[in-house]
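Record minuted for everyone:
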Amino acid sequence: MGEAPFDASGLTRREVLAGGAAAVLGACGREGPRDSRTGSPPGMPQARPVERTAARPAARASDARVPVAVEPNGKAPDGKATSGKAPGGEAANRGTPGGKAPDGGAPRGANVTMFRGNPSHTFYGTGPMADRLVERWRFKMGTFVSKATATRAEKKWSGTGWTGTAIYVDGMIYIGSQDSRLYCIEAQSGKERWRYQAGRMFKASACYHEGRIFIGNVDNYLHCVEAATGKGLWRWDSGQDLDSSACIYEGRLYIGGEAGYLNCLEPKTGKVIWRQFLGGTEGGGGSGGVESSPAVTEGRVYASTYSGDLFCMDALTGKRIWKARTGDDTDVSPVVTAGRLWTAAQEKSPYVYCFDALTGKHQFRVNNNMGWWSTPAVVGDRLYIGGQDRRLYCLHAFSGAKLWAFRAGEAIWSSPAVVDGKVIFGSYDSHLYLLDAADGRLLWKERLDGRILSSPCVVRGSVFIGTATGWFYAFGPPGGEAREAEPSRPEGG
């Protein structure tokens, strides 16, 4: 046990980039006010039906025409708007092939139904993966303009944010955009099926369960949307931004929030089952509380806070089991497997941490001197993670020993996918990279239109990923036409 340091010197520290929080070191663990009868916060918000249920409401005046580009040759057409029609008479939502995924394991079939594929964050997609990729299509999202305030200038938002990773269900891609819309896109063609309008930016990843999409928004709401049509079913007010991505475990929905709470809801109705205050609210609006996505496995839910605390809670009751320190804002989502938990913190405590998942006992930590925003991928005894210091690292998952490092042009916030012996990730340098997982050798890279903060969704060797300028891409192996992914046994989870 202890620290496994390695050298990241000689690099100029980058300014904390858009989507990241300036970390404040501090203690937490205090409980918020509770209702003596229910153990819940007083006035606990409950879900209510959405007021507008159309799949595609009228566009805002600031964005009256939203072109959608689907171009095999990579060129954007001018002024081509989508029909916005919901699918009619088609099996757009048939459910996960083979039924529910085993707890903590890879989903059955080719579907990727939540961030990192399952509640323990250990499924990263399916192969076979080619050694190089070609662009199949690209899709153009719109723009959301935030109003100017006394302390902040007007800003335009588009594309996928740091936590905005696509999911794939039965041939459909579901992706939230910072333009305030949730999109359903055909994976084979890039054609838009429907769009759902929210109040502000979608930064979180979507989650699919029993024909419904669940996704948080900066408008403070968790939105529940019918997957087949884009119809809004209900929304729940969390009290503050929701950058955290939801996950489903044993029929319950778990999600964090910048209000400082870890939340457990009933997915069908949005009814709150329990809600526990974890802290982190000293970060203020837009950068506090629980921004990471909770991990759930073996009856326990794990979540971290802006304050630098990592919690293990009973998934059924919300009761705290243990608490450990990471020392700084921890937006990296925990990964849990083989009795261990891995996470990482930002620049004031710039370590990848390994804990015992049952007890919270510290195992080791690894320093890169600049901090981490990328969620690791753990495959066998190897851990892959991107750093603020521009490097993609491969570490021994159970000792912290550095096996290799690959240097990109800018910071890596994208969470790597490891599939079929290859590592796929994006960088702030606008490149999508494909490396050999064994030795870090560069196999292929492609410059996209805009910096890449979000993470790849990988389905049978096809890669779906967005940029911060509003473009969303599909890549596949060379040769032939793009094809819809077929169910297969997961490889690399």
